[in-house]
């Protein structure tokens, strides 16, 4: 069994790196040798319906049959450019007053004084009032974080710029900050906007932004880090989790970096540099000596070659194929074809001075990205599953609260990642509980059926799946009336392939409609398809 | 028993599949146990356990959500300050259920069932449990209890227990056991509720959660009966089409889907049994009845988690009678029924139950006849194997911290006791620190 050649992408010719000598038998060792490592662009002739569908799912949240056909007809270059920059598509920035910023505001000087007075005089009644007021505000803020979650979910469902939202979600998982710790919903909103602003921009700018972000400063305790008492939390994570990965720095770099970040805090909703609390004396970081502040620290980090490797590795995991985290597999331990691809992406990233778009363009155009072992082999995140179902099948949204709850049940509570490491992704989404939640939320979207009873609006919000069949009717008139052809078409739309056994199971359902393709039959097909294990993949 | 003739495998695909357990076990993440024996046992009916066997021990956690008023649960009727602070809601000394061997403290009068457990030597009352710098936010304090960390960060304490002691399935992202030679011997933790609590979440431990067994299934079946058979066919391909040995995500999903079908069937079958004793009809009783049924059915789950809410009694909580008393009665009656059921099954000695709430409430009642968020409170540890009696002294009602009780026992010392003495785990490893274990079990 030959190993995949690790030749640089430059001399790769289409098709030359595939060794399809044996069928995939399943073990990683044998599979790697048959996956194309070519970063050369996919040719227009190889870019059809399945590839356009794949691009829509991975670089966004899936597409309707019409969208798939459109991208397929454009060919890869135009399709990828459109995904990266949808031109005139509205960006609809939320206004600054979308949410209430005062719920968790810091107490005023007078309020603080009154509280101190009550404490000193042990005025239990007054103290109790303060406590009750604090609890009331926390309750109100928890309401608001729910509103922000639903707002974001709706935005992902409706946006004309899906890649922008998908990258916003990527940065949220990368710079993971949880509302549960900071308990300030408006700060989570500000951070979300920071991620959106830089979603497809420059990673360096995002790094300078994140050390000024109130939610992050609070989450990693930098807001109280001061000269002589530096808190190392942010300094450590900014290297370990946000830029270089474990092992890419020394303990001394953390200590010195923490000093550089002292005095970086916030007041109300804005960054504040407290000069008096900043340690302005000399530091030595990565062998460089100077009076670095937070920006100086970030600048030195960005000069390290490990940054491009680490960030592109995470982008690859998010968009292309599962990779174990760095602490479980070093770069050298990865399969050869992945090493080749990652080297290429890292050099694109550093060559482009940390611009995001060139890396994604290179990936989305590459032959590797469209290898048949890469396609339909990524487990959808809960967000991907729900947003993707609504967008690609055009189901009613029905009830954002229920969708949001389902995300939580499936393990992806937006704005509340489990830890600073974010979500692991991949197989960690799937267990025997989440399998049913995943199936059932699809049944809900398609029919309004809840695990118990039906949604109150199920009758008014009837899902009409028949427009899905328009492309079928266009391509082969008459087929939209044939249960077998419709089954085949819907399987290919939803799963990317139409296994014979599945087709037969679907067709068996048409006896309930005496062989005619009705709305009920199509919904029945979709209920079965979306409950198939393969539907969890994209 | 013959696998292929077992009821769970009646579909035609299984009759032809030649399912090989050895090859599936190491990648199957959950209910399909590790060995052919475990599998056969799981699928079999009427399994009886072997009392006293270490690995058969079960922990049940009862969470009282909202902040249970500890002072009106274990009542310091011997302290005059109690009646001063609680002129309206204080329970009169002559109504308190006195505990033998405990001076000046007793149980709320609605907890006669708990008193019975105490008198039978099955209850340990741990007094004044809390932690330093108490947090009075429901959210935060609950997370602190769940993570056993006063910063409320990291995985759940029971998730970490599963990770470190049980391991062998669902190793995080890879979905594979860390060591292939140490396969799973236990089923994942089960929580009755809409989602699995943080306490059960580990790095690799993935708990199962369902509100009722009827919800642990595909709801699409209810839409049209014609969907049922194709659905089951499509979700039971996990052992055919070559997926049993494969390691693609598609193979993994096939196996998990099959796994989910089998667990769903097994759990629904388990809870459909008529219990051996009558349970009270309240929320906790219903949940404990399910747990009792699953234990009886021989599930190899080590930790069950149930929740009773409604303890956030800011107003009109009542005294000897009233809202809080009703909740306590629900709790006590349900727990009593649970142990009667377990005894009838001969499983009682295998099961330890621990009760906690995120915080107690303030010593003084407020102007609305209720109590606001407070700090330390008692915990209950229940089961035939506990060291019965009252552990620790009641916190002082005069030496307060801004009107709140000062804790005497760190809750992590109780966790350490349960981990070391019941689950026989290394508490330092699980809790990430050294806490002197409270002696909760008999010698």
Give your account of this protein's structure:
The complex is a heterodimer of chains A (538) and B (443). Chain A has 538 residues and is mainly alpha-helical. Among the domains of chain A are: 42-84, no CATH class; 306-370, no CATH class; 466-536. Chain A has helices spanning 28-31, 49-58, 65-74, 76-84, 109-120, 124-158, 162-174, 179-182, 185-197, 203-210, 214-219, 233-240, 251-260, 294-302, 306-319, 336-351, 356-365, 382-393, 400-409, 432-447, 470-475, 483-495, 500-508, 519-530; strands at 264-267, 270-273, 283-285, 288-290. In chain A, the strands form two sheets. Chain A has a two-stranded antiparallel sheet with strand order 1-2. Chain A has a two-stranded antiparallel sheet with strand order 3-4. The longest helix of chain A has 35 residues, at 124-158. Chain A is globular, with a radius of gyration of 26 Å. The two termini of chain A are 29 Å apart. In chain B, strands 1, 5, 6, 7, 8, 9, 10, 11 and 12 form a nine-stranded mixed β-sheet that branches. Chain B has one domain (3-431). In chain B, a hairpin with a 7-residue loop joins β3 (97-98) and β4 (106-107). Chain B is globular, with a radius of gyration of 23 Å. Chain B is an alpha/beta fold and 443 residues long. In chain B, α5 packs across α11 (323-345) and α10 runs parallel beside α11. Classes of the chains: A mainly alpha (538), B alpha/beta (443). At the A-B interface, α6, α19, α20, α23 and α24 of A face α6, β7, α8 and α9 of B.
Can you tag this structure with a few keywords?
heterodimer, A: 538 residues, mainly alpha, two-stranded antiparallel ribbon, 50% helix, 3% strand, globular, disordered N terminus, B: 443 residues, alpha/beta, nine-stranded mixed sheet, 13 helices, 12 strands
Mean pLDDT of chain B: 82
Instruction: Name the chain pair whose interface involves the most residues.
Output: A-B, 70 and 71 residues
Q: CA-to-CA gap between the ends of chain B?
A: 39 Å
The number of distinct structural domains of chain B comes to: 1
Poorly predicted ranges of chain B: 1-54, 168-184
* Structural class label of chain B: alpha/beta
> What strand order characterises the main sheet of chain A?
1-2
Q: Quote the distance from N terminus to C terminus of chain A.
A: 29 Å
């Amino acid at each position: 069994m030959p190993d995949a050649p690790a030749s640089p992408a430059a001399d790769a010719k289409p098709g030359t790196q595939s060794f399809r000598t044996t069928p995939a038998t399943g073990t990683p060792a044998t599979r790697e040798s048959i996956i194309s490592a070519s970063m050369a662009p996919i040719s227009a002739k190889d870019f059809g319906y399945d590839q356009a569908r794949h691009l829509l799912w991975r670089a966004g949240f899936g597409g309707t049959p019409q969208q798939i056909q459109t991208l397929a007809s454009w060919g890869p270059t135009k399709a990828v450019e459109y995904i990266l920059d949808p031109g005139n598509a509205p960006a609809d920035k939320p206004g600054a007053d979308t949410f209430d910023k005062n719920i968790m505001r810091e107490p005023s000087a007078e309020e603080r004084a009154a509280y101190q007075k009550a404490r000193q005089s042990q005025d239990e009644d007054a103290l109790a009032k303060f406590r009750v007021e604090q609890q009331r505000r926390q309750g109100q803020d928890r309401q608001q974080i729910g509103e922000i979650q639903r707002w974001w979910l709706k935005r992902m469902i409706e946006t004309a710029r899906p890649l922008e939202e998908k990258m916003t979600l990527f940065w949220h998982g990368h710079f993971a900050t949880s509302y549960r710790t900071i308990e300030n919903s408006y700060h989570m909103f500000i951070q979300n906007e920071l991620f959106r602003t830089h979603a497809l921009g420059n990673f360096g700018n995002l790094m300078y932004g994140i050390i000024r972000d109130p939610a992050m400063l609070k989450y990693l305790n930098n807001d109280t880090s001061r000269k002589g008492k530096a808190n190392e939390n942010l300094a450590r994570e900014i290297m370990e989790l946000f830029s270089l990965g474990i092992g890419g720095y020394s303990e001394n770099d953390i200590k010195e970096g923490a000093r550089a970040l002292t005095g970086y805090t916030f007041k109300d909703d804005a960054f504040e540099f407290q000069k008096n609390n900043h340690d302005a004396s000399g530091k030595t970081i990565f062998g460089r000596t100077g009076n670095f502040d937070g920006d100086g620290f970030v600048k030195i980090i960005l000069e390290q070659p490990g940054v491009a490797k680490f960030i592109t590795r995470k982008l690859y995991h998010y968009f292309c194929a599962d990779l174990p985290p760095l602490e479980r597999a070093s770069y050298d331990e990865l399969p050869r074809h992945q090493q080749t691809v990652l080297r290429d992406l890292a050099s694109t990233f550093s060559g482009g001075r940390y611009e995001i778009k060139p890396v994604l363009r290179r990936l989305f155009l590459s032959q590797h990205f469209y290898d048949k072992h890469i396609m339909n082999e990524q487990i959808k995140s809960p967000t991907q599953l729900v947003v993707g179902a609504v967008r690609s099948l055009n189901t009613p949204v029905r009830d954002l609260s229920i969708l949001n709850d389902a995300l939580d049940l499936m393990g992806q509570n937006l704005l509340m990642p489990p830890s600073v490491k974010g979500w692991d992704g991949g197989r960690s989404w799937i267990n025997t509980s989440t399998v049913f939640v995943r199936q059932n939320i699809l049944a809900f979207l398609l029919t309004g059926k809840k695990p118990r009873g039906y949604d109150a609006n199920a009758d008014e919000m009837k899902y009409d799946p028949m427009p899905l069949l328009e492309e079928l009717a266009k391509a082969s008139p008459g087929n939209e009336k044939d249960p077998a052809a419709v089954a085949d078409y819907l399987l290919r739309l939803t799963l990317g392939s139409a296994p014979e056994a599945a087709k037969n199971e679907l067709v068996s359902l048409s006896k309930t409609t005496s062989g005619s393709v009705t709305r009920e039959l199509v919904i029945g097909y979709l209920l079965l398809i979306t409950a198939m294990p393969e539907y969890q993949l994209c | 028993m013959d696998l292929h003739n077992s009821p769970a495998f009646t579909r035609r695909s299984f009759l032809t599949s030649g399912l090989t357990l050895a090859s599936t076990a190491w990648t199957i993440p959950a209910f399909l146990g590790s060995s052919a024996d475990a599998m056969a046992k799981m699928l079999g009916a009427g399994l009886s356990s072997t009392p006293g066997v270490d690995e058969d021990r079960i922990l049940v956690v009862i969470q009282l959500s909202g902040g249970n008023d500890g002072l009106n649960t274990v009542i310091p009727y011997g302290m005059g300050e109690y009646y001063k602070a609680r002129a309206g809601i204080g329970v009169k000394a002559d109504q308190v259920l006195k505990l033998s061997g405990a001076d000046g403290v007793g149980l709320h009068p609605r907890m006669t069932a708990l008193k019975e457990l105490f008198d039978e030597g099955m209850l340990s009352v741990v007094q004044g449990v809390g932690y330093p710098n108490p947090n009075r936010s429901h959210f935060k304090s609950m997370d602190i209890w769940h993570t056993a960390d006063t910063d409320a960060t990291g995985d759940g304490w029971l998730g970490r227990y599963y990770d470190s002691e049980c391991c062998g399935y669902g190793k995080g992202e890879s979905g594979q056991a860390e060591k292939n030679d140490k396969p799973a011997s236990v089923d994942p933790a089960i929580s009755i509720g809409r989602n699995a609590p943080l306490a059960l979440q580990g790095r690799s431990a993935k708990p199962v959660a369902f509100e009722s067994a009827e919800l642990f299934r595909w709801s699409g079946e209810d839409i049209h009966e014609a969907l049922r058979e194709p659905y089951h066919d499509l979700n039971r391909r996990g052992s055919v089409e070559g997926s049993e040995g494969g390691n693609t995500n598609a193979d993994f999903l096939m196996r998990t889907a099959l796994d989910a079908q089998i667990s769903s069937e097994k759990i629904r079958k388990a809870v459909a049994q008529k219990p051996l004793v009558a349970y009270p009809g309240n929320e906790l009783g219903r949940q404990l009845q399910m747990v009792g049924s699953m234990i009886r059915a021989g599930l190899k789950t080590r930790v069950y988690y149930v929740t009773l809410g409604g303890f956030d009694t800011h107003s009109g909580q009542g005294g000897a009678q009233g809202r809080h008393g009703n909740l306590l009665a629900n709790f006590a009656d349900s727990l009593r029924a649970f142990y009667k059921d377990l005894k009838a099954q001969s499983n009682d000695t295998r099961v330890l139950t621990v009760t906690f709430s995120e915080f107690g409430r303030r010593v003084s009642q407020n102007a609305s006849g209720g109590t606001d968020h407070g700090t330390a409170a008692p915990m209950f540890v229940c089961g035939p194997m506990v060291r019965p009696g009252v552990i620790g002294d009641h916190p002082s009602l005069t030496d307060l911290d801004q009107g709140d009780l000062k804790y005497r026992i760190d809750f992590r010392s109780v966790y350490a006791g349960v981990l070391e003495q019941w689950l026989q785990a290394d508490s330092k490893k699980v809790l990430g620190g050294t806490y002197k274990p409270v002696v909760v079990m008999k010698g």
